[in-house]
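Budget justification note: compute hours in this period were largely spent on complex prediction jobs such as the one shown. Inputs:
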Amino acid sequence: MPENSTHQDFEIRPLPHYERWISALLLVAVLGGFVYVLAGAQIKWSTIPQYATSTIILSGIGGTMYLTIGSMALGLLLGLIVAIARGSQNSVVSNAAAAYVWLFRGIPALVLVLLWFNIALVVPNVWIPFIFYGSTNDIVTPFVAALLGLALTESAFMSEIVRAGIISVDPGQIEAAKSIGLSPWKITKRVILPQTLKVVIPPTGNEFIAMLKYSSIAYVVAYQELASQSAKIYTQNLQVIEVLLAATIWYVALTTIFSILQHWIEKALRDTSGGSFARKMMRNIAPGRF
Amino acid sequence: MDLVRIEDVHKSYGHLEVLKGVSFSVAKGDVQCIVGPSGSGKSTLLRCINHLETINRGRIWVEDDLIGYRQNGRILHEMSDSELCHQRSQIGMVFQSFNLFAHRTSLENVIEGPIQVRSTPKTQAIEKARALLAQVGMDRFENYYPRQLSGGQQQRVAIARALAMEPKVVLFDEPTSALDPERVGEVLDVMCELAKTGMTMIVVTHEIGFAREVGSTLIFMDQGVVVEKGKPRDVIERSNNERAQAFFSKIL
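Corresponding output:
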């Protein structure tokens, strides 16, 4: 009977994915070849953990973190100011902001770090009224030169990221804010900026991770970050690959930590179940307890 | 007493002249409806009244305030931002696309103006906002975000947000055009109730039924000028103007 046939059980056979087996085999072959080459290479594997935990490398990690967080904080602050200035009704201010972005996006960070480091050649003394008078060399340490070079470059890119966030806000809401009499500054602070976060956070996390590795150009001014500390060891003992592999492990580890942190922040921002941002973050880290 | 006076208003975008000398006035407590084909300049006119658009010629007054300018003899001085904000805070506006602040709940949308512009104490602003949300039938949704509300519900919150500033006049820019047909009624009902409280309203709309039943006067605009003006029934049913007749015969 026809009704009965609809109740019959059928077996569903999934499509066989032969191509997955082929690609897996290829991957194993490539990785195997890679391991074979490494095994035959004259690398003193046992020394890598020693280098990775040596005081020189560990102090380099500290230097990398200071420089990364410092440059990103300053870059973010300046970028935010420049992005807001870019949208100013004051045409002098908005054009100056555009020129700023044009200039600092155009100078390689490496060149900018070197320019700051050598500024004493042309400006030997610094005079800030009532605050400071002294030799430029006393202020522009390797850290300050690297910080300024990296932060100024970063601020130009960050301002473009923030600007993209500002553009993404519905213009209708800005008109509504005007219609109830909010001032331009309050519209920026209370309507526009809070709504840019969703757009701004993912690329900012990306910039942060890029900066973690980009900070290695501070090597040229002998600032004590991970790359230059590594060089200090291998120029003495010539164990170049071993030391650089130890540094690589740390760079990848730091990147992983910040990627996870970024993931948590983004998840907390998507969380609409109420509570403060800190509480939402904690709920990510220890679900069930908050 | 005329609350809103519009005198010879001209507005152009480049070479395109959108308003070609519009004049009329709205008495206190009146519901002034404006209808007309799209592109007739009615929305632009409404946006000129709270200076969201600047005008090229003419003057607009709300009560005794000249909008957007300070007059000194034959010279109109542009106002500063703070003076403009003060004027706008006394003119409510309801938009076609609601334009609620997406990151704020219904209640937060309504208290934003009183707290930030008028410096009303928070508890007082919340109390007032709850009463307004009740007035538009949205008191059960004070903690909802705009995306969790239907179009009609969002528009009712937007009306409460405009009323929270205790405006002298509320401008409605096609308030029901973006709504599902079954949601139009709930917004029109709220507007109808608002009209009964004596609020002065200027309503750009395609809802001829609303204009006829609730409107005190009706203006028919076409191609940047006022073509017909009068009692709604007279304009809709007894106009001698060819363009007005053609428009109403199509819409009714």
